[in-house]
Amino acid sequence: MLLQAREYEEINRILATRLSEVEARFKAELLSDLEPVNMLANHVERYRGKMLRPTLVLASSAAAFADRAGDAVFQDAVVTAATVAEMVHMATLVHDDILDEAEMRRRGATINHLRGNEAAVMLGDYLISHAYHLCSSLPSASASRAIAAATNTVCEGELLQLHHRGDWALTERTYFEIIRRKTASLCGACCRMPAVLAADRADGGGDPVALALFAYGEKLGIAFQIVDDVLDLAGDSDQVGKTLGRDLAKGKLTLPLIRHLAVSGTRLPEVDTAGLDADAAGVLCEAVIAGEGLDYARERAMTLVADAKQTLGDAVPDSPARRLMMALADAVVDRQA
Amino acid sequence: MLLQAREYEEINRILATRLSEVEARFKAELLSDLEPVNMLANHVERYRGKMLRPTLVLASSAAAFADRAGDAVFQDAVVTAATVAEMVHMATLVHDDILDEAEMRRRGATINHLRGNEAAVMLGDYLISHAYHLCSSLPSASASRAIAAATNTVCEGELLQLHHRGDWALTERTYFEIIRRKTASLCGACCRMPAVLAADRADGGGDPVALALFAYGEKLGIAFQIVDDVLDLAGDSDQVGKTLGRDLAKGKLTLPLIRHLAVSGTRLPEVDTAGLDADAAGVLCEAVIAGEGLDYARERAMTLVADAKQTLGDAVPDSPARRLMMALADAVVDRQA
Question: Do the beta carbons of residue A275 and residue A250 sit within 8 Å?
Answer without folding.
Answer: yes
